[in-house]
Fold these 4 entries.
Entry 1:
Amino acid sequence: LEGKEEREEVAASTASTAVAMDDDDDDDVVLDVVPDSTDPVVERKRRAIQSLSLYMLKLSIVQGLLGSLSVLLLRRWAPDFILTSDPAVRRNLLVLLPHIAAQMALVSVTLVTEALAIGGGRFKWLAGGTTASSVVAVIKLRGAVDLVDIWNGGIVALFVGRLVTASLAVMDMNGLFRWREMKRKNING
């Protein structure tokens, strides 16, 4: 990266570090700098974080779609040296592959969104989301009778729940929930 892009990348990492401190209950360190600041440096950092978040999410969608295409091509080609030559296992895999392909974009976006949330220090969001979505996934899995039910029920529930909470965490990191910061600042005086 050169010039402006490099400065934005550095600003994004600096800003996400500062924002990450907010989630560690060290309110007075960050709250004087972050909420509704008119400081151009803070605003540039905030825009850089938003830009990086959108860029990574777009790439994750492309990655997921390419993964889906790869799995669908693998199913169509179905080489013995990759899938297996055992007819029963092969039959189950060929039935399952379209379901896995359909979920590739979901999994890709979820993992990248979680990585962004981790970079912003939003561990509490992720812990809560993973716990809640795991409970829902277990409930869905209790009714599963085959591999397709497992993938379409439990796995999808797990990743949708994680994506929702990771997305909320990234939105928080990008300032969507500034009212939280203002409330903390008002409480701390």
Entry 2:
Amino acid sequence: TLFGTTLHCNELIDNMAPQLKVLGVTGPKKTAAPVATGKYYPADDVKRPLHSRKGKKNAPKVRASITPGTVLILLAGRFRGKRVVALKVLESGLVLVSGPYKVNGVPLRRVSSTYVIATSTKVDVSSVDVSAINDGYFARSASTEEDEFFAGDAPKAAIVSDQRKADQKTIDAALMKAVDAVPMLKAYLNAKFSLKNSDKPHNMIF
């Protein structure tokens, strides 16, 4: 009886063998995808030089319309609305201009090309020598506004040195000759620029 039961079970297994399905085996075994390793980091900190702009000085980018002798319209600052003559572009990218001072009261000063309108009017400034004028020419004294604030005194008025007055006269003397050579240019520089509500600056040709 025991052996008969064993034979009966074996016969059942043999008869069911063609109908059995082996799950999980559908083809050749697939290789596992490679595991991505993390980024390598050194055990010790590696010192890298900090980025500095002291040694790098990119050339100033100034609009092509701003050249020595171009009449500019100032849009900001104390002299906004005034017309001035561009003398040269300094190393800092600022534009050296003059009124001349005798015409409209604008002295030698530096202005940003962002806040000016370049007009189509040109003046021959080849005879005006401004080679000695640079960014250091406009450097301020060691005392700062912060020191004056904590000192409790009233702000001191700007004092124009005798050297700057002499340079202003020399440059304006040569510049006035170029201005007088162009008809009605003196009156044009003296006139203040302004806009009305009905004016459309984007359609104007300066």
Entry 3:
Amino acid sequence: ATRLLASCVQSICGSSQLRLSTPAPLIDDVPEPQQVPPTLLPAATQPSTATIGAAVSLAKPAKEYQVSKPCLLTPVVRHFEASVKGSGLGEDGGTREVQREAFIDGLDEITKVLDVMGGAGTGKYLASNVKKLRSSQADKSKLGYREWLLSELPVHGANGYKEYVDDSAAMANLWVGRILDFFGEMFACLHEGKETSQSVDIAFSQTLY
């Protein structure tokens, strides 16, 4: 999610290959394009509060972020900020939990960004997995994203714990990561000035092939 957000913002700012289907601005007072760190997307299942914070900072101007009119990326930034609000190092020295509901709300908003940029249906695969996250049997009393995913472990006993049950938060989380990884790479290629078709091919070979 963090790689996608950072790459998306920077491709909008700096790529002449990107064409939007709406004249509305995607973000207010966009900063000058910066180089996207190659490893913003965390390898672990649990999204890092530090990397989400890094992406949010890339998407925001250096000055105080103030919304003067509706922008497509504004809800994404706000939800991701809320998901790491008050985060930092926990007592064990690790990062605290990403807040589940705000993080999933942010994913929901990303589907809208994809639909506007690529046309209706572009975000449908992400949307279907976000829906699966919301309808899962994971314990909804768990506010942290990681603890919420772990609460679903007994469900996978149906498969002898050899693989994820398809209709589950764990399976949705797996595909959410893959989908965002693909779009993150694609937007990074667009930011470098590559053609859309070439960007899609490169992203697919690097993330889904």
Entry 4:
Amino acid sequence: RICHNPHNPRPGLPSSPSNFCKETTTMGDEADYAIETADAGASATIPMEAGQIKKGGFMMIKGHPCKVLNISVSKTGKHGHAKCNFTATDIFTGKKYEDMIPSTHGTTVPIVNRSDWEVIDIDGDELTLMDEAGNQKTDLNLPSYPEGMAEEIRAAWNGGENSVIVTVQAAVGIEQVIAYKKENASS
């Protein structure tokens, strides 16, 4: 049998169908894998030119979603690009990060969502939350940052005596309680 496969390295020579199948499977797997990785990262962040990021905005630094505290722009030599020097803090841990990127270069910005939930139960460090629509959330723990906030929430809730609303911030697949407020009991 002669193989008329354009991918056959030696045309005119017989090639076994099993070899041909193995080649395509491998190629297909690699292509699929590359596409999946691109999709997975793309949904949590959006590309943006470094010069477009503003103070108080968000950006990714070394794989961490950060809030920009300060931006200083330095103009380099005659033909150089202006460089943006970012100082930012991780939105979940408060750790400080710095990054320098030419203003015309692209960087990534995390998509950050915030939502308010009412505390229904606190079991150890695990929270049971409910939103206005009645949806329950049981996959969050009391926050470890900032220090002491977990105890403040526990004290404000007071074993269910008070109504406490927590703000949950979500970005790049991480969710964390970042703020709380005690609702005044209407009695």
